[in-house]
Recover the amino acids of this structure.
């Protein structure tokens, strides 16, 4: 497993997670994204939550782990743990996402 992480403004969490769906063949869809979003919106500052989703990536069973740390009321730190190739794709997508937002 490889990790990539970033700090997100609360309103950017769902739009970013939506961008990950095309990379994952199954196991990470609107239902999982909604689960993460609702959990984050109900978290208090300094709370942490872990998510683990069995996924199919490039035809192979794997796991996507997501760790959320609410270090600020509007800005969770989110860490993604995945097989190296998927973690690299997530990292590249984060860079594109933040560039598009001018962050």
């Amino acid at each position: 497993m490889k990790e990539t992480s970033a700090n997100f403004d609360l309103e950017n969490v769902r739009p970013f997670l939506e961008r990950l769906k095309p990379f994952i063949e199954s196991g990470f869809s609107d239902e999982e994204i909604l689960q993460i979003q609702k959990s984050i919106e109900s978290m208090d500052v300094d709370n942490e939550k872990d998510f683990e989703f069995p996924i199919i990536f490039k035809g192979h069973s794997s796991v996507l782990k997501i760790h959320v740390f609410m270090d600020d009321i509007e800005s969770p730190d989110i860490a993604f743990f995945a097989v190296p190739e998927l973690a690299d794709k997530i990292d590249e997508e984060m860079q594109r996402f933040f560039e598009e937002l001018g962050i």
In short: The longest helix spans residues 84-101.
